[in-house]
Inverse folding.
């Protein structure tokens, strides 16, 4: 059945704007690479593009499928989601490889299954339904709520496992071979006990994208990994050095890619290059790399910057600005220097002041500071310190505070810490906004309600996933989440009040 024009046109339009190396496709060994968020987000995911490339180079016919921008329009038209490459319906692919970046994307996967007429729960599916193989960043912390919806998972770094897993699927007709592969998790076999995560061979690095497009946040940017992992020890972070691989955390340390290797891999016709890595600003050769990119005439983006690096290496903000980077973005992560110390974050007030001075000197549009509210032991005094300190930053340069409520994750030292509570976070946000009135500082908060949902999913097991299905079927409003997850003792042992 032809895809209705109104639904197909946006896909054809964005396809025409893509540059780079298209995925060749045929009717043999077809694999749907599924991203359970819309195209703009999916095409900004380096891991999604990289795994698609690995499978394509292994000889599979890879086609990308994203969650439609307007799910209701597709539901109304009774149209199964289709691939970018050939408008093939998802139901025609025998295997879906799904990348989950964070907890709430589980809703997107459930929607894709429902739009395709496939029973969302594995136990309800029929032989003719596709096999669902999950992977992605969420597998480093807690992928258990996604287990009822998939046939298998690859936990951790899938680079040198995914090809063998899909190969075995085409030989065996199922994913049972995962049991013998690093990071392979079969819900039917393993139950709620997760095996250790996989670690890719360093020789496979760096991950890189093959398609760039103006239709993403990272406008026309070729993404490449300058390093993988982190050598630091922030207690809230899954990427920290001493996360335990046997319990699912990221493996230790940074794995560096040399500037020479990176420059070899950057396509000549890519207008902009985005350097990716949890600790990319700790790369000891970042300055020569930035200079080499500028000399090659490239615009530059960077996935994260540590405030201490910006302060210690003034060439970093200078060269990034020359490469067109316009918002100097760093993380302070906690409201006060005391709390940053307890989180092992280490960034100091003096370093953040140096960031504001660099933003002013190099005429950045804004200084953006990411931080969390509601971290353990946060007191009113910490909030007052944040207000006073932000006013100091704003006296130097215009500031945006990107504020996210703290959500503890599994496989971190703060696993098991409570969520502060929706009303507590909202009150602190109100105080913060009031305290910053009249200065050049804007607060851009993430929703405390959705952070509460994320918290529940971050701590839940399989039953949390089944509740997520009921929520999605009920419409997915916050009241639906509150009804399901607010029940006594469910699903997290640290259930917190959900009052708004
Ligand atoms: S928050 Fe950043 S610096 Fe800290 S451990 Fe995580 S990736 Fe490393």
């Amino acid at each position: 059945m032809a895809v209705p024009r109104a639904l197909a046109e946006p896909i054809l339009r964005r396809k025409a704007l893509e540059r780079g190396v298209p995925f060749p496709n045929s009717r043999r060994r077809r694999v749907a690479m599924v991203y359970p968020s819309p195209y703009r987000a999916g095409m900004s995911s380096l891991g999604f593009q990289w795994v698609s490339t690995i499978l394509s180079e292994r000889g599979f016919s890879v086609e990308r499928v994203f969650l439609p921008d307007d799910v209701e329009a597709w539901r109304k038209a009774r149209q199964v989601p289709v691939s970018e490459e050939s408008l093939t319906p998802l139901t025609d692919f025998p295997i879906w490889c799904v990348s989950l970046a964070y907890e709430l994307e589980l809703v997107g996967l459930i929607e894709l299954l429902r739009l395709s007429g496939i029973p969302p729960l594995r136990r309800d599916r029929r032989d003719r339904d596709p096999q669902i193989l999950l992977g992605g960043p969420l597998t480093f912390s807690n992928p258990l709520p996604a287990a009822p919806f998939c046939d298998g998972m690859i936990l951790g770094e899938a680079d040198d496992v995914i090809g063998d897993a899909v190969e075995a699927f085409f030989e065996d007709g199922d994913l049972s071979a995962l049991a013998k592969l690093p990071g392979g998790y079969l819900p039917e076999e393993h139950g709620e006990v997760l095996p250790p995560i996989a670690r890719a061979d360093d020789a496979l690095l760096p991950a890189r994208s093959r398609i760039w497009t103006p239709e993403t946040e990272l406008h026309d940017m070729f993404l490449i990994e300058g390093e993988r992992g982190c050598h630091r020890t922030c207690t809230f972070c899954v990427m920290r050095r001493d996360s335990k691989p046997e319990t699912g955390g990221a493996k230790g340390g940074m794995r560096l890619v040399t500037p020479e290797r990176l420059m070899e891999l950057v396509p000549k016709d890519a207008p902009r290059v985005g350097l990716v890595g949890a600790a990319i600003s700790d790369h000891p050769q970042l300055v020569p790399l930035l200079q080499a990119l500028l000399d090659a005439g490239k615009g530059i983006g960077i996935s994260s910057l540590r405030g201490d690096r910006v302060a210690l290496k003034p060439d970093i903000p200078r060269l990034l600005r020359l490469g067109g980077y316009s918002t100097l973005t760093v993380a302070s992560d906690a409201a006060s220097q005391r709390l940053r110390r307890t989180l092992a974050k280490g960034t100091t007030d003096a370093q953040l002041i140096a960031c504001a001075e660099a933003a002013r000197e190099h005429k950045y549009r804004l200084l953006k500071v990411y931080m969390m509210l509601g971290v353990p032991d946060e007191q009113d005094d910490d909030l007052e310190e944040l207000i006073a300190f932000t006013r100091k930053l704003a006296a130097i340069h215009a500031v945006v505070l990107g504020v996210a409520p703290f959500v503890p994750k599994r496989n971190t030292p703060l696993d098991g810490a409570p969520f502060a509570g929706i009303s507590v976070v909202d009150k602190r946000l109100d105080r913060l906004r009031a305290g910053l009135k009249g200065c050049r500082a804007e607060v851009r908060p993430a929703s405390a309600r959705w952070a509460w949902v994320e918290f529940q999913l971050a701590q839940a097991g399989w039953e949390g996933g089944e509740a997520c299905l009921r929520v999605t079927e009920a419409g997915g409003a916050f009241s639906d989440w509150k009804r399901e997850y607010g029940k006594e003792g469910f699903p997290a042992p640290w259930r917190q009040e959900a009052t708004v």
The chain has 18 helices and 17 strands.
